[in-house]
Structures are given as C-alpha cells and as structure tokens.
Sequence to fold (315 residues):
Amino acid sequence: MRDTRESRLLLVLLIAIAFALITVDIRGGEDSPVDGARQGAATVFGPIESGVSAAVDPVGNAVSAIRDSGERHDRLAALEKENAALKTRLGSDDRSRSRLKQLDKMLKIAGQGQYGIKGAEVIAIGAAQGFSWTITVDVGANDGIKRDMTVLNGEGLVGRVTTVGPNTATVLLASDPDFTVGTRMESGDELGFASGQGDRPLRVELLNGKAEVKKGDRLVTFGSQADRPFVPGVPVGVVSRVDPSGGGLTRTLYVTPYVGFTKLDIVGVVVEAPKKDPRDTVLPPKPKPTPRPTVTVTVTPSAEAPVDGQNQQEQ
Fold:
C-alpha cells in the first residue's frame, strides 16, 4: 500500500480501535465482550501456532544443546587446566623436596669440612661448550665466583670453575678426560692423580707402585697450593678395580665417583677454603657388611645301619 494521507489516517484509526478493544478487554475480565473473538482466533490460529512451534522447537533445542555443549566444554577445559596446574604443583613439590634433600646433604658436607660455599643451580649442560663434560651454573663474578674454585655437592667432588661471567660460570666436571685432581687414600698417605674418563670410572695413578690397595678403599682430594683449584678433603670415590702391580713406578686404580654427573641439580662453589685439612672427616660412614648366615650340617647314622655286635653275630 502506497504511503498517502489516507493510508496514514487509516493506520491511526486502526491503532485507536486496538487500544479501545484492549481497554474494554482488561476492564471486562472473565466477562470481556471480546473473549469469544479471542477464543475463535485461538481455534483458527492454534493449529498453525502448534505447527510453527513444532517446526521451531528442534532448532531451539539444537541451539540450546550447542550452548550447553559449549558450557560443558568450557567446564571440561577448566577442569583439565586445574588438573594440569595441580600436577605441575605436585611435580614442583616433589622437585622442591628433592632439592631440599640435596641442599641439606651439601650443607652437611660443607659443615663437616668447614668449607664456605655459594649455592648454585645447574642451568645448562655440555652442548654449548663442545664435547667437554661441563655444566653452567647460575652464579658468577657478581656472586664472588672466580676461576679455579672447587665445586661440590652433597655427594662429593663435582669439578672446578673454568670460565666466569657476570652472573654465570662454567664448571669442568671431574668426569672430563682433561680433568685431573690430586687424591689421597683414606687412612693413609698414598697420593695419586685422578683423571676423568667420561662415563667410565676415574683412572687413578698412585705415586707408589707398591702401595697396598684393595677394592672398596676410598679417596679424597689432596688439595692444591693456596687451595686453588682444589680444597682438601672432598670425597672423590670408591676403588672398584686395582690393576696388578707390575713393579712400575706407579700403580693404576679405577675409582667409581660418588657424584652422578648426569643428574646434577644443586651444587656449591667453595668460595672459602677450610683453615685446617679435614682429612677423612667428610667421607660418608662406611657401609656395614651384611652378615652371612652360618649353616651347620649334622650327620646322624642311618637307622638301617647294623651295629658292630650284630655284624659279629651274623658272621
């Protein structure tokens, strides 16, 4: 219909009639004069409304399902995130407990040997420094670290500092083939030099070719002049094999180190040497030998064996 003056007047008239009917319907309540017309309209348009509703409901339900599915997905994602955070926290707690244990053992060694140490965390290993067995720690010149300082952990000798930056330092591990440290046998004065062999036991050349050494004997660092690069008394390892003495000037030993060089985490750089050589006091207690049960076998004569008297009578 075209927008003319007559059409606008008709629209206003229809609106006025609609308002009038609404007013009459509200005031009439249940006896409203338009109630019959409303019921008639419901009779005519009800089936159409139901059909439209039946057609629209699946769409509405689908939209609702999608919305609910999205909410469930968001909730599932939130739970998964919470679980991941919980696992991370538990993992961190386990790691913290491990680190506390490492730190406690290292402080115990430092206390026994009277070493002044600067605690550090291993932040890198080897690759950046070529094929050498090295680690990088998170302390450097700003922390008082200098080249040729001894590095230890709660097990024993780790290595020595070779390069120092402002906030980091590189440590050459005792397992490196270029590493050499003076050693001393426990409860004796047999001296030698231990060299790294990668993932194999340390090789120790004793200066005394006739030294009495056996498997299970233990070694500590002998110490260097002015305590650089090695302070005395740091546990090195346990003798695992002794080459036969060939009458040479030296004797070769193979020593399993106390330190596991592939699983280093918390270490300490010795920034202050002990005033007195701790000798063997830093070594861990010797393991007690496991007692072997003694089996006693008692032989009893068989019941069927004849006695001497019976043998004589039978003869």
The longest strand covers residues 116-125. Confidence is low (pLDDT under 50) at residues 44-50, 52-56.
